[in-house]
Automatic annotation (TrEMBL):
GO molecular-function terms, A-Z: kinase activity
Residues annotated as domain DNA-dependent protein kinase catalytic subunit CC1/2: 916-1155
Gene coding for it: Prkdc
Ranges annotated as spanning the membrane: none
Entry-linked InterPro entries: ARM-type_fold, DNA-PKcs_N, DNAPKcs_CC1-2
Alphabetically ordered keywords of this record: Kinase, Transferase
Domain called DNA-PKcs N-terminal: residue spans: 50-828
Protein name: DNA-dependent protein kinase catalytic subunit
Length: 1164
């Protein structure tokens, strides 16, 4: 943008200082630099900002151009022409952004046209701009087309007075208007048709008699004008006179095929011929001689060395065969025998010509491709006129060639041949006209289609090749749907299944991006196939082949259902075959899940990514969705229940919930089974969703936020409120989650009652408030890049640069978008709801002041800096700020505060114990949470600090300190954290570190005793607590301390039987899979000690504490009690109790066989 500013400043300064004596070459150079800037690699935002600067009202390019035109010397016309050329380039490159400046451009064009009436160059530039603008139809409301037509009509009336190149662009412009805005030429159609034909015929006659007087631009303009004109005014040529005259002219132009000559007018004639061949089909296909002439001449064009000549020749050659297909396929079944014989002869000659070319080994790729496709276009005429036998013969020849070239080709072939799609194209058109396909023919089409699908990535070097592949597969689908609908589903299922396997067989996108970053090599990813999948699944909407295939609407509607059913069937087939089982990490304090088969997980990740992109780009029809969605939901939900730690299954469900209109769908199918299945599944997932972390947590919460409002209404409870709260907590540091939560609130409000929404809003309002109060922008654009630099010339002609603090545009950051969405949502609430949300007394938290101070000493004074008044805001920013930079800065300040706190706590403990207790209970839980933060930088900052804090409070200097019970209480409460499994695991690690560190203090054994007693007391109290999270915390705390607790027989006597009782009772009542895992682990630890210390438990001990249901303190009493739970309705509890009873009974002293047999009988 600075380039544009500098160039504009220099242009305005030059004209202000020098007037008509300005430096023309320098001005041209600066306009060229502006043009080059827009051609460089700039973003869309940069281009929009640059256009705002360029078209500024006071000192922009329009103002400069008007000043140039007002000077009116000869040299300034050159600059004006360059400016108009710049506008032409901008319209081509930025059509969406240039829309705001069309009126300014048109105004300048009108001024230049009026001022420089006799200047051909400026007129041509103006007409070229008109052409570009009028080709974009949504610009028409800003363009006065009627005035342009009137101006053109006046120019045409001047005849030869207008230069030839100007006449060429006038005729071109008439053609553009006729094609895109025909209503403006209703009163000129006869005049234009006569004009085009007369001018064209005159120039062709002059060319033959006196070539020097031949005006090539005029002829080219007439042909271009006719090409556009005939799109909407073809009725004028249907009269024999016009048609025959134009046909003879085109034959003359096509017949001139000479090397090393410019064929501009000839190529223009070929372009008209191929775009409107149907208008001349009766003349072209009147006899075999005429057709053979066109075949020969068009093929000669394709052999010319000039690339443009070759390209137009090849495309026209193929169009000739497409025209034959239309002409001979739509003839009446009853025709005269002599006409039928002529047509048969034409088709035989055309096929013979193609067969000879097909055997020519000198053909290059483009020529071979055209020949192959052209044979396919003759399939229907061949079947109608020569019979199916000839068609089957062609199929066999083609299939043998394709099989040899592609299907049986060795893997290490040297050169890539993209012609497989062309073979598939022609073979598909052939099978459409074969009444009954045999198995070999069907299998060959299927194999070749799969080969083409797999070849899609190999063709990525050219978009044209990839388009050929997608079009060829679509044609094969069309042809099977039209003539062989009974085998279409079989074809689609195999094609889609093999296609999905190929698409998902690459690296996951995130892994591929990392490899690309470090190696510089571009890797193939599953996303590269998405465009092909979308094209195939939208095949029923494709109108590209309607003219040639004539597909009925009924067949298209049936095809839509078949496509989606086959695709979803293939998706589910792959999911069922994947091994999605996971194992938990061997480290008992880590919660990471490790896939047994990582390759299968990668396939699923790629599959879900493809599925998500596809459904996002498709408009799902409710009626067709009802045929595949219920079964799809059932399969995915069952897999998700079986494998709850697979995030991709939540992602795929979120896509289904998000992309479908569920209200209409549930009404349409009138079946409650799908609805009940979703409700049951959601209730099940909400039980253990709070145990997830990282990507698994994101995906699960996002799935909840995508739930349809009709489902949420049925399951609305405190759990769904907690889910939304958790989503907003995560969203404070990961904004897409916050956005999902706000969108969910807007959507759910449609079906939830006012009382339900009010209950939800009261709970989540503090978290919305935190997002609204966050300041700063992640990608804020510097003000200097958003101001308009303006040059003003003072009386002394010195340049002064003025910067106005006027934002041209400030792009909205992701945080701003979320905040705007929240405000928009809150603004829609009624007044009573808003008033109820005002004020939250629970947010007023007391923090002591003037506790933690930092003293700075200077020569003349001492400064005492207190951080306590900032602490509430620092803690809030550390945990919830959405701006990463601000959040990390707050974390660094908080880190420094903790260091000060640790350095002063021994002194302050004696002087201000109450205040220090409050501060400790506020800051240490935050330290633990930040040590488990999902931001690696923050985690690396606080994890060592948290471990250090634990070591400090477990050290000898803290003996008999008030902090020991406080720290243990904090850690135990963190272990019971409901919404963050990472915090639970890390707190358990800290408990273990606390006890291990106290063991190192050999001289202070009493300290260990105090710490252990507090922890044991907390474990026992948590076991008795009615809150299931506290009970789960007891199991986690015990598992972390087990290796220490088992070493002390006093603790074993006091604690072991009590814990056994608490954990078995908990296991008998729990339905949470995560709780079961921790409790089973605790029971394994208890069982191991019972076995190893069986001699201890076989003896009577008066100091051993037992619960009331136990009849004694010995091991056989434990076995007897365990046998009571063999009848538990909970399978896990029943199985575990039998296993423990069976194992412990073998170690019972004296009556070992008795209890062992009793255990066996209880099992039976």
């Amino acid at each position: 943008m600075s380039t544009i500013k500098l160039c504009l400043c220099a242009l305005h300064t030059d004209i202000a200082q020098n007037g008509s004596n300005l430096d023309v070459q320098a001005a041209q150079q600066r306009i060229f630099q502006i043009n080059q800037y827009f051609k460089s690699d700039i973003t869309f935002i940069e281009s929009e900002l640059a256009l705002k600067i360029l078209f500024a009202e006071d000192k922009g390019i329009i103002c400069y151009a008007k000043s140039i035109i007002s000077l009116d010397p000869i040299n300034t016309k050159i600059i004006t022409a360059d400016i108009l050329f710049l506008f032409q380039q901008l319209i081509e490159s930025f059509p969406m952004y240039i829309v705001n400046y069309i009126k300014s451009i048109m105004n300048l064009c009108n001024i230049s046209t009026i001022t420089f009436k006799k200047n051909a160059d400026l007129s041509i530039r103006t007409y070229q701009i008109y052409e570009k603008l009028l080709e974009i139809e949504h610009f028409s409301d800003q363009i006065e087309i009627s005035k342009i037509v009137e101006h053109l009509n006046n120019q045409v009336s001047l005849g030869d007075k207008i230069p030839p190149t100007a006449r060429q662009h006038i005729y071109n412009l008439f053609g553009v208007i006729a094609q895109h805005h025909p209503m403006y030429l209703k009163n000129y159609e006869d005049k234009l048709m006569n004009l085009f034909c007369y001018e064209l015929q005159s120039q062709i006659d002059i060319r033959e008699t006196n070539f020097k007087k031949f005006l090539s631009p005029v002829a080219v303009g007439c042909l271009n004008g006719l090409t556009g004109f005939l799109n909407n005014f073809a009725d004028h040529i249907k009269t024999r006179d016009y048609c025959l005259r134009l046909y003879e002219i085109l034959k003359k132009l096509i017949g001139i095929v000479e090397e090393n000559k410019r064929h501009i007018i000839n190529r223009t004639g070929l372009n008209l011929f191929q775009k409107h061949i149907q208008l001349f089909s009766k003349l072209v296909f009147q006899n075999s001689i005429e057709v053979m002439w066109f075949q020969k001449k068009l093929w000669d064009w394709s052999l010319l060395p000039n690339i443009e000549d070759k390209k137009i020749g090849l495309s026209s050659f193929e169009i000739l065969y497409k025209g034959a297909s239309i002409e001979f396929s739509r003839q009446n079944k009853i025709i005269e025998s002599n006409i039928s014989n002529i047509q048969q002869e034409i088709i035989k000659n055309m096929i013979m010509f193609l067969k000879l070319k097909l055997c020519d080994i000198k053909l290059n790729y483009q020529e071979h491709a055209v020949v192959v496709r052209s044979i396919g276009w003759l399939a229907e005429p061949c079947n109608n006129l020569l019979g199916e036998k000839h068609l089957v013969e062609i199929f066999n020849i083609f299939s043998l060639q394709a099989e040899e070239k592609y299907l049986n080709c060795p893997m290490g072939k040297k050169t890539y041949d993209p012609n497989a799609a062309n073979y598939l194209n022609s073979l598909s058109l052939i099978i459409r006209n074969i009444k009954s396909l045999n198995t070999d023919q069907f299998l060959f089409i299927q194999k070749l289609s799969i080969y083409c699908f797999n070849d899609f990535i190999s063709a990525q070097s050219k978009s044209e090749w990839q388009d050929n592949i997608s079009n060829a597969i679509i044609i094969s689908i069309y042809c099977l749907a039209l003539s062989h609908g009974n085998i279409l589903d079989k074809y689609l299922k195999q094609l889609f299944y093999m296609g999905l396997i190929k698409s998902c067989s690459h690296r996951a996108a995130i892994d591929a991006e990392i490899v690309e970053k470090y190696t510089g090599h571009v890797l193939i990813k599953s996303i590269n196939y998405v465009s092909l999948w979308i094209s195939l699944l939208k095949a029923h909407q494709c109108h590209l082949f309607d003219l040639y295939l004539n597909m009925p609407i009924l067949v298209k509607s049936t095809l839509e259902k078949s496509l989606m059913c086959s695709f979803m069937s293939s998706v589910l087939k792959i999911i069922k075959k994947l091994d999605l089982s996971t194992n938990k990490s061997s480290d008992e304090l880590e919660a990471e899940y490790i896939a047994r088969k990582p390759a299968d997980i990668t396939v699923l990740v790629n599959l879900v990514e493809i599925y998500s992109d596809i459904l996002h780009n498709l408009e799902l029809d409710i009626e067709s969705a009802s045929s595949w969605l219920p079964y799809t939901l059932n399969v995915i939900i069952n897999h998700s229940i079986e494998h709850p730690t697979i995030s991709s299954l939540y992602r795929i469900l979120a896509v289904i919930f998000q992309e479908l209109d569920w209200r209409t769908f549930l009404q349409k199918i009138n079946n409650n089974s799908a609805k009940e299945k979703i409700i049951e599944y959601v209730n099940c997932v909400m039980v253990y969703a709070h145990t997830f972390k990282g990507d698994l947590q994101y995906c699960c919460l996002n799935m909840f936020m995508c739930l349809p409002s009709t489902i949420v209404k049925e399951i609305f409870n405190t759990q769904i409120v907690e889910v939304v709260k958790s989503t907003l907590i995560v969203g404070s540091t990961f904004l897409p989650m916050a956005k999902s939560a706000v969108n969910a609130l807007k959507r759910w409000q449609q079906d939830l009652s006012k009382s339900e929404m009010d209950q939800l809003l009261k709970c989540i309002m503090p978290y919305l408030d935190l997002l609204l109060r966050t300041r700063g922008y992640d990608n804020e654009v510097e003000l200097n890049n958003l101001v308009l630099d303006q040059m003003q010339v003072q009386d002394n002609r010195k340049r002064t640069l003025l910067k106005y603090n006027k934002l041209i545009m400030k792009p909205e950051t992701e945080l701003e978008i979320v905040q705007i969405q929240i405000l928009e949502y809150l603004s829609q609430l009624d007044m009573s709801t808003c008033l109820e949300l005002l004020g939250d007394p629970d947010r007023t938290i007391y923090y002591p002041h003037n506790i933690i101070n930092y003293k700075l000493s200077f020569n003349d004074c001492k400064i005492n800096i207190s951080f306590d008044h900032l602490l509430p805001r620092i803690l809030e920013l550390c945990q919830y700020c959405s701006n990463r930079q601000i959040r990390f800065t707050a974390c660094e300040i908080f880190h420094a505060y903790i260091i000060l706190y640790l350095g002063n706590n021994l002194i302050l403990e004696r002087s201000k114990p109450r205040e220090m207790e409050i501060v400790t209970t506020k800051i240490i839980p935050v330290v633990i949470k930040l040590a488990c933060d999902m931001d690696n930088l923050i985690q690396q900052l606080f994890e060592p600090l948290a471990i250090g804090v634990v070591h400090y409070f477990a050290s000898g200097i803290q003996y008999n300190s008030i902090y020991t019970p406080i720290i243990i209480d904090i850690l135990m409460d963190s272990i019971s954290e409901n919404n963050n499994e990472a915090v639970r695991d890390f707190s358990a690690k800290c408990i273990m570190e606390f006890l291990r560190w106290t063991l190192k203090e050999d001289s202070l054994s009493q300290k260990l005793s105090i710490s252990l007693r507090i922890i044991i007391k907390k474990i026992k109290s948590f076991c008795l607590h009615p809150n299931p999270n506290k009970q789960l915390g007891a199991a986690i705390a015990f598992n972390s301390c087990y290796t220490i607790l088992r070493e002390d027989e006093t603790i074993i006597n006091e604690l072991w039987i009590q814990l056994l009782y608490y954990f078995i009772v908990k296991l008998d009542s729990t339905k949470s899979t995560n709780s079961e895992q921790h409790i089973l682990k605790s029971l394994d630890h208890l069982q191991r000690v019972f076995l190893e210390k069986s001699n201890l438990f076989n003896e009577i001990c008066s100091s051993r504490i037992i619960p009331k249901p136990f009849l004694g303190t010995q091991l056989f009493n434990v076995v007897e009690w365990l046998l009571r739970y063999i009848g538990s309705p909970m399978t896990i509890c029943r199985s575990k109790c039998f296993d423990m009873a069976n194992s412990l009974s073998k170690n019972v002293k004296g009556n070992k066989n008795k209890y062992f047999n009793l255990a066996q009988q209880s099992k039976l």
